[in-house]
């Protein structure tokens, strides 16, 4: 396979590749472009910009926006939903780090 085709195929598998326009992203989420702008303004996701300045979203960003949409649909204000998701992500990171430290301590604890 030629190099340029390999690169294009790699982009299809990349969760961070900005493949979705604002309109398409809104359709996928069942949301409005205004909702996407709101989660962007709240700092939850930062879409990339095309050369023409249009917002482009990745699959990872759409998953995050979908979680915000779930919270908003349950009655949570957009800003609060974004904060909740940020805190959930921070908690996941802290728990993961805690597990790694405990694993290292368990491995080295037997040596001391």
Automatic annotation (TrEMBL):
The protein's UniProt keywords, in alphabetical order, are: Coiled coil
Q: Coiled coil as a keyword?
A: yes
Provide the coiled-coil residue spans. Answer: 84-111
Where in this chain does the record put each HTH merR-type domain? Answer: 19-87
The residue ranges crossing the membrane are none
Record GO terms (molecular function) = DNA binding
Instruction: Tell me the PROSITE patterns matching this sequence.
Output: HTH_MERR_2
Give the InterPro entries listed for this entry: DNA-bd_dom_put_sf, MerR-type_HTH_dom
Gene3D superfamilies recorded: 1.10.1660.10
GO BP terms, alphabetized: regulation of DNA-templated transcription
Q: Does the keyword Protease apply?
A: no
Q: What is this protein called?
A: MerR family transcriptional regulator
**Origin species:** Streptomyces yokosukanensis
């Amino acid at each position: 396979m030629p190099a340029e085709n390999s690169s294009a195929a790699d982009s299809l598998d990349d969760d961070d590749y900005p493949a979705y326009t604002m309109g398409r992203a809104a359709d996928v989420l069942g949301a409005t472009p205004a909702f996407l702008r709101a989660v962007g303004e709240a700092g939850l996701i930062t879409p990339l910009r095309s050369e023409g300045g249009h917002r482009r979203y990745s699959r990872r960003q759409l998953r995050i926006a979908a979680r915000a949409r779930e919270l908003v649909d349950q009655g949570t204000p957009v800003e609060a939903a974004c904060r909740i998701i940020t805190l959930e992500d921070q908690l996941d990171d802290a728990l993961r780090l805690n597990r790694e430290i405990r694993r290292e301590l368990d491995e080295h604890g037997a040596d001391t």
